[in-house]
Amino acid sequence: MTRHEAREQAFLLLFDKSFHPEMELSDVIALACEDGIVELDDFAHALVQQVCDAQTEIDAAIEKHLRGWKISRISRVSQAALRLAVGELRFTDVPPGAAVNEAVELCKQYASSEDVSFVNGVLRAYLRAEESACGTSE
């Protein structure tokens, strides 16, 4: 499975989990695998686990860059894409451009053009803030 395919699997699980916040992640994964929705590899599983374990922290980081919005009010597709990208940016060594590009591509596939622009804008603002905090620039 390619990294893109693994990210898509992780995205689908995060999207599914958003409908069942009370369920344990392991149960969401088991049901999705049984239903044939996902075919999970180690990378995707680790990524989903990291995002779910740190969701409060990730959501707070995302909300800092939502102008006039709360994360609970944006589409579930945008939520899943943003959580996945910010999780990757925080917990893996993926290049920032790759994380943003993957999130945008997932939105192109599963959402509207408004979601694509929204997710891209939020992630770009997140990256600019992170670069400023680290004292680096593009």
What is the SS-derived class? mainly alpha
Overall number of strands: 0
Q: What's the CATH topology name?
A: N-utilizing Substance Protein B Homolog, Chain A
Strand content: under 5%
**Radius of gyration, in angstroms, nearest whole number:** 14 Å
The total tally of domains equals 1
**CATH homologous superfamily - what is it?**
NusB-like
CATH class: Mainly Alpha
The global form is: globular
How helical, in percent, are the residues?
A: over 70%
Question: What is the string of SSEs from the N terminus onward?
Answer: HHHHHHH
What does this molecule look like?
The protein has 138 residues and is mainly alpha-helical. The chain has a single domain, classed as Orthogonal Bundle (N-utilizing Substance Protein B Homolog, Chain A). The protein contains seven helices and no strands. It has helices spanning 3-19, 25-34, 42-53, 55-63, 76-91, 96-110, 113-134. Helix 1 (3-19) packs across helix 5 (76-91), helix 5 (76-91) packs antiparallel against helix 6 (96-110) and helix 6 (96-110) packs antiparallel against helix 7 (113-134). The protein is globular, with a radius of gyration of 14 Å.
Helix and strand arrangement:
Layout: H1 3-19, H2 25-34, H3 42-53, H4 55-63, H5 76-91, H6 96-110, H7 113-134
Helix pairs in contact: 1-3, 1-5, 3-5, 4-5, 5-6, 5-7, 6-7
Q: How would you summarize what this structure contains?
A:
The protein is an all-alpha fold. The chain has helices spanning 3-19, 25-34, 42-53, 55-63, 76-91, 96-110, 113-134.
Key words describing this protein structure:
138 residues; 7 helices; globular
